[in-house]
């Protein structure tokens, strides 16, 4: 049968992993720094965020959506494997993948998460705040409405996103402090994983608080 009869339903790039999520009882895709996934399949997409940002972008009309996971607003390298680690490319890669799945740009909505301040006080700059400012400004410029967000603070977050409904679940984890060296190590680890793999509301789960 032709590709036209079986159109592609998922685009993944960079640091991603498929698995079966026992907690929610369905197939899942885990995103690591520098990766993204866009899908029309009935799967969930999960990630864990510190100072990094994930944008959950989807079409409510079509039930198609995805997540990215970037570490810094601006690129520090021309290495193509690292593109998804940086804000502008991470956003463009995800949006372009959704459009390839047939989503008109005018249908896109966003929920944004992450940007915690985890670097030790002697670190240079607030990476989480810079990331949060970038993603809000980017989406405003691109006229993609932000319907919910959970940004900044001092706690890492686990994020679970259901592209078919746009539901996003957040679990806040224990406070953590990282040195600039830790951040650099995370970035290097993400690059290594990418090389191997080359090819309206927010709900808090395990807690009784809703964020909107």
TrEMBL record:
> Which Pfam families does the entry link to?
CheD
Which CDD domains does its entry note?
Answer: CheD
Q: Does the keyword Hydrolase apply?
A: yes
The entry's keywords: Chemotaxis, Hydrolase, Receptor
Q: Which GO terms describe its biological process?
A: chemotaxis
Which reactions is this enzyme annotated as catalysing? L-glutaminyl-[protein] + H2O = L-glutamyl-[protein] + NH4(+)
> Which class of enzymes does this protein belong to?
hydrolase
Instruction: Name the domain of life this protein comes from.
Output: Bacteria
Coiled coil, from the record: none
Q: Which SUPFAM superfamilies match?
A: CNF1/YfiH-like putative cysteine hydrolases (SSF64438)
Q: Span of the secretion signal?
A: none
TM spans (from-to): none
EC numbers listed for it are 3.5.1.44
Give a yes or no for keyword GTP-binding in this entry.
no
Gene Ontology terms, MF aspect:
protein-glutamine glutaminase activity
Q: What does the similarity note say?
A: Belongs to the CheD family.
Q: What does this protein do?
A: Probably deamidates glutamine residues to glutamate on methyl-accepting chemotaxis receptors (MCPs), playing an important role in chemotaxis.
Q: What is this protein called?
A: Probable chemoreceptor glutamine deamidase CheD
Q: Which organism is it from?
A: Lampropedia puyangensis
């Amino acid at each position: 049968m032709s590709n036209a009869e079986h159109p592609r339903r998922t685009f993944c790039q960079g640091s991603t992993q498929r698995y079966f999520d026992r907690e929610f009882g369905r197939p899942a895709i885990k995103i690591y720094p520098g990766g993204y996934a866009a899908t029309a399949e009935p799967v969930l997409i999960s990630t864990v965020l510190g100072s990094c940002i994930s944008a959950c972008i989807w079409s409510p009309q079509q039930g198609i959506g995805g997540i990215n996971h970037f570490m810094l607003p601006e690129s520090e390298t021309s290495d193509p494997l690292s593109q998804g680690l940086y804000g502008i490319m991470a956003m463009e890669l995800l949006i372009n993948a959704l459009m390839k799945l047939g989503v008109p740009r005018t249908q896109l909505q966003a929920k944004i998460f992450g940007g915690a301040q985890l670097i030790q006080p002697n670190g240079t700059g607030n990476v989480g705040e810079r990331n949060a400012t970038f993603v809000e400004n980017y989406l405003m410029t691109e006229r993609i409405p932000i319907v919910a967000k959970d940004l900044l603070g001092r706690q890492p977050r686990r994020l679970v996103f259901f592209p078919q409904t746009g539901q996003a679940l957040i679990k806040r984890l224990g406070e953590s402090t990282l040195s600039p060296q830790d951040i650099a190590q995370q970035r290097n680890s993400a690059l290594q994983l990418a090389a191997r793999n080359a090819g309206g509301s927010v709900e808090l789960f395990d807690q009784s608080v809703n964020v909107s």
